[in-house]
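> call design_seq(struct)
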């Protein structure tokens, strides 16, 4: 069974998408684009620009976001205006005429690529996703396993603990998505490993919920920040032994893989080697704009991950539908499935589904689900 451990469904981004307001949703979207791997263009002539236009240098929280009339466009674009000049980020594929991705879009992609099941992740830029993810999972239980989202920097509060319980107990969501970039909303006034968050981590540990942990090098977006985050993650993994983890997006190539091979600091390796941690294999979404399919650079980095950690720690993800700004959904799988010839058949089975199946019990759920017709 081939399982994509990282994809998305979402409502039309012009709306609040579950947030308290459209403005809150727009702020989350704008923050995502400040350091995007997507291409940024000046609208009048197509000249290349940068997401750095969206924030004040050195101010990485929400207070540093510029007032740029950030808005949702068409053909996969997110539009903004700086000093009277219009720009856009090509964040979604050009063929996405409206930025919306119902479950049936993912199902069509899965059928074409030969993917059996998909884990639906979250992220505040997509929306407050608990209800919509639960809807997709309930509609297609044999095809989707959905994660829940929490307000990460305020996850310890009574209101957010209640939402965690609702998502778990009533909506039946299967694991937690937890992203460090969300701490920017409050200008990084707290860290994920702060003792204040103990009620949240204890609840997750007690329920033995897996955590999909997205760890950009916040707050300063450098190696020192990343190392500190990995040290904190290892401490939490040691303390809460009943949580299993997935490192979303995998290791940061820009920090430790630019030479074509991995060069990890010992503090980072200490976290990566933890027995409770799995690591995503997912390169086209960030590097597909610079590398050409079938991504020999990524293949070598996958070889390095296999050699360092073993295939039993690796899980494949696509980040669809976003990934189609750089390649097709099928190509986001085939560069591993068909071109990583150094992987044995057993290793591919583990990376392309077996490891995440074991983590989330997907196969058992699929076998018990009522068969449905998908087209």
């Amino acid at each position: 069974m081939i399982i994509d451990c990282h994809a998305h469904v979402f409502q039309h981004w012009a709306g609040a998408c579950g947030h308290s307001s459209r403005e809150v949703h727009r702020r989350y979207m704008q923050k995502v684009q400040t350091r995007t791997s997507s291409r940024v263009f000046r609208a009048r002539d197509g000249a290349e620009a940068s997401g750095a236009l969206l924030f004040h240098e050195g101010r990485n929280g929400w207070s540093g976001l510029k007032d740029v009339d950030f808005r949702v466009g068409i053909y996969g674009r997110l539009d903004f205006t700086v000093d009277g000049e219009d720009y856009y980020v090509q964040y979604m594929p050009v063929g996405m005429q409206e930025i919306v991705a119902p479950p049936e879009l993912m199902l069509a992609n899965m059928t074409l690529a030969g993917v059996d099941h998909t884990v639906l992740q979250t992220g505040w830029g997509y929306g407050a996703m608990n209800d919509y993810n639960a809807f997709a999972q309930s509609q297609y239980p044999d095809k989707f396993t959905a994660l829940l989202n929490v307000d990460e920097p305020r996850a310890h509060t009574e209101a957010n603990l209640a939402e965690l319980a609702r998502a778990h107990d009533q909506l039946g969501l299967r694991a937690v998505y937890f992203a460090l970039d969300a701490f920017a909303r409050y200008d990084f006034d707290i860290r994920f490993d702060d003792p204040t968050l103990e009620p949240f981590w204890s609840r997750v540990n007690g329920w033995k919920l897996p955590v999909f942990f997205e760890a950009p090098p916040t707050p300063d977006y450098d190696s020192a920040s990343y190392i500190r985050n990995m040290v904190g993650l290892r401490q939490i993994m040691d303390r809460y032994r009943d949580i299993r983890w997935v490192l979303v997006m995998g290791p940061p190539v820009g920090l430790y893989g630019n030479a074509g091979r991995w060069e990890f600091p010992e503090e980072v390796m200490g976290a990566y080697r933890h027995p409770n941690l799995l690591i995503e294999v997912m390169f086209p979404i960030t590097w597909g704009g610079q590398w050409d399919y079938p991504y020999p650079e990524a293949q070598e980095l996958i070889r390095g991950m296999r050699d360092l950690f073993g295939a039993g720690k690796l899980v494949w993800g696509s980040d669809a539908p976003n990934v189609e700004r750089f390649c097709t959904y099928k190509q986001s799988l085939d560069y591993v499935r068909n071109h990583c010839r150094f992987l044995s058949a057993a290793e591919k089975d583990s990376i392309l589904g077996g490891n995440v199946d074991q983590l989330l019990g997907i196969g058992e759920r699929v076998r018990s689900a009522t068969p449905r017709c998908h087209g």
